[in-house]
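Practice problem 4.
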């Protein structure tokens, strides 16, 4: 099956400012991908490169096996500010979507508008931020794309609306098998819906992979204080992602596919948020 997205040494610079550096990724199709990273890490830049709104400065990107071209029907994009036409009603958005998109799924659009409680007669300019996000997702999903790119879609939503939105997203991916790449700062939400994770920090991909593999291969080690040379007791196959020390104790977050056998460490599993935080605060590649 063609990958949803591949990037090889992808770099994007705006003048002298680098937004994305040497990004190499292979994201299989059919996944719900969480894209996390601090403000300014390059998430929006990667999504805009993927939907063809930006061109790379160097390197290569392919989406569904092709060079991205803006506006193709196979790719749906919801930008960070969830753009809608303020003067059009909800119903007019759906009619416009139907007119512009031959693959428009009217039943899906009507069902979602009903489910999320939007009034078809309401002008989009009078919707709340969360309601606008729901409308923008509905329009993007009803085009029946193969890949949905969502830039912080839940940022403006209250917790209940967020849950409804994410449930809707899970239904879309389960029913239609579409791939989703979604940026967010809310790792707990991503843990609920994503099966693939990319952590982007300071324009670099720090880690990318299956959520299950990431959870199985990352561990927290705690043991008596030792300096960096003491860490050499760890196998070469163990990568230290983050370390902290008190006078008596050393605590590490490590990545290792093999079990940690050294009895001088207490080994604990991590949840996805711990893994993300370790990469956000850990050492660069
Ligand atoms: N049009 C632009 N012109 C110049 N610099 C830009 C432009 N767009 C983004 N940048 C810079 O590129 C870097 C990456 O920005 P980007 O918007 O991709 O980050 P982000 O991870 O999406 O951030 P956030 O979480 O705040 O939305 C930042 O340093 C930003 O200032």
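Answer key:
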């Amino acid at each position: 099956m063609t990958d949803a997205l591949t990037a090889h040494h992808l770099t994007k610079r705006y003048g002298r400012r680098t937004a994305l550096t040497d990004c190499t990724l292979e994201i299989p199709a059919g996944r719900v991908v969480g894209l996390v990273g601090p403000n300014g890490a390059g998430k929006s830049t990667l999504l805009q490169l993927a939907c063809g709104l930006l061109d790379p400065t160097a390197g290569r990107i392919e989406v569904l096996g092709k060079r991205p071209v803006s506006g193709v029907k196979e790719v749906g994009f919801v930008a960070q500010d969830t753009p809608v036409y303020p003067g059009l009603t909800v119903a007019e958005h759906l009619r416009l979507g139907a007119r512009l998109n031959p693959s428009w799924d009217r039943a899906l659009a009507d069902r979602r508008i009903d489910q999320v409680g939007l009034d078809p007669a309401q002008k989009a300019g009078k919707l709340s931020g969360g309601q606008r996000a729901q409308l923008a997702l509905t329009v993007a999903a009803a085009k029946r794309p193969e890949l949905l790119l969502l830039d912080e879609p839940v940022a403006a939503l209250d917790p209940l609306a967020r849950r409804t939105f994410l449930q809707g997203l899970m239904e879309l991916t389960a029913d239609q098998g579409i791939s989703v790449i979604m940026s967010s700062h809310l790792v707990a939400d991503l843990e609920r819906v994503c099966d693939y994770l990319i952590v982007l920090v300071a324009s670099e991909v720090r880690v990318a992979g299956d959520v299950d593999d990431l959870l199985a291969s990352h561990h927290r080690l705690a043991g008596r204080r030792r300096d960096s040379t003491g860490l050499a007791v760890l196998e070469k196959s163990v990568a230290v992602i983050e370390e902290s020390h008190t006078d008596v104790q050393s605590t590490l977050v490590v990545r290792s596919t093999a079990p940690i056998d050294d009895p001088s460490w207490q080994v604990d599993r991590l949840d996805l948020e711990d893994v993300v935080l370790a990469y956000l605060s850990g050492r660069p590649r």
